[in-house]
Amino acid sequence: MTTDRIRSFLAERRPEGPCLVVDLDVVRENYNAFTRALPDSRIFYAVKANPAPEILSLLAELGSSFDTASLTEIELALAAGAAADRISYGNTIKKERDIARAYELGVRLFAVDSFEEVDKIARAAPGSRVFCRVLTDGEGAEWPLSRKFGCAPEMAIEVLEHAHRSGVVAAGVSFHVGSQQRDTGAWERALATAATVFRTLAERGITLTLVNLGGGFPTRYLRDVPTVASYGESIFDALSRHFGNRLPETIIEPGRGMVGGAGVIKTEVVLIARKSAEDPVRWVYLDIGKFGGLAETMDEAIRYPIRTQRDGGEVAPCILAGPTCDSADVLYEREPYPLPTGLEIGDEILIEATGAYTTTYASVAFNGFAPLQAYVI
């Protein structure tokens, strides 16, 4: 939602062009909610969700660790005040020279999902801890993940045994149940798989200690989502069922759930038109679209809450599109978006819950449009 602080900022500063405004108070509240819900799990904030230095500094001050996908993100986390032992290199696709540099910087926790990645780490970061990512079905997620990351559980067992024999520490297992996961029980299935991997390797004399529970914790868009506390209760129950009294070390990687609801994009209506005199549906064009930061509207997977200065009156369905000369730059057409009939060219619109995966998805200068401006307050 749009906080009073964000409203005041927009009213006083009147920033030109589309912009994202993030309220740090909301980020702080979300962090505290995660620590209460899963007090025995370490939080590794997914830097890719929003790497703004102000956000990283706040989270570092609060005690967060960081899940990073690149050397640049590692350097950002270090600059924000995080020690290297609070950083995980969580991308399973890494150049060997980047692994070596991360090792030089003190990083000792790496993700893998193949024998080949283990070999790179054994050469460039000997003695480091590795966790192997296993595939999950992503059922229940609004933004399911593909097969790009992870391997079959049977292969994960062999990858971790290979790591153990290659001079690195086979620490454990990771998984991701799908982004914007609304099913609190999704972790149950993944933890059952993780427990099987633990038991099989224990029989081979290899003791695993870590389960990376991944991300997937949702932001409220147009539909209600379960509370963070309900996720914590469900995850703890599943851990207890599958690991008994010998609970492993656990970490979580919230990204969207940490910052999504903290941000609002201010945008402007550039054009309202119809494709024929008989066309019952208006086309509403904004000064931001898929290439300006709203890439997650792809396939209309994420439907953001939209607020206008004319809310409260009659509404009618609209096709919502961005400003670029690319026919793919349409946000909502398959399921038109209801907007006020009184909407006019020049009206400002607020797109809520846009704190995650917007500035980082925005193009540099497609069609000459400037990258999405961001403010952290």
Automatic annotation (TrEMBL):
It catalyses: L-ornithine + H(+) = putrescine + CO2. Its EC number is 4.1.1.17. It comes from the Bacteria. The modification N6-(pyridoxal phosphate)lysine is found at K48. The active site is at C325 (proton donor). This is ornithine decarboxylase. One of its GO terms (molecular function) is ornithine decarboxylase activity. PROSITE patterns: ODR_DC_2_1. It is an enzyme of class 4 (lyase). It comes from Microbaculum marinisediminis. GO terms for biological process: putrescine biosynthetic process from arginine, via ornithine. GO terms for cellular component: cytoplasm. Belongs to the Orn/Lys/Arg decarboxylase class-II family. Residues 26-259 form the Orn/DAP/Arg decarboxylase 2 N-terminal domain. It holds the Pfam family Orn_Arg_deC_N. The lineage of its organism: Bacteria, Pseudomonadati, Pseudomonadota, Alphaproteobacteria, Hyphomicrobiales. Keywords: Lyase, Pyridoxal phosphate. The keyword Lyase applies. InterPro entries: Ala_racemase/Decarboxylase_C, De-COase2_N, De-COase2_pyr-phos_BS, Orn/DAP/Arg_de-COase, Orn_de-COase, PLP-binding_barrel.
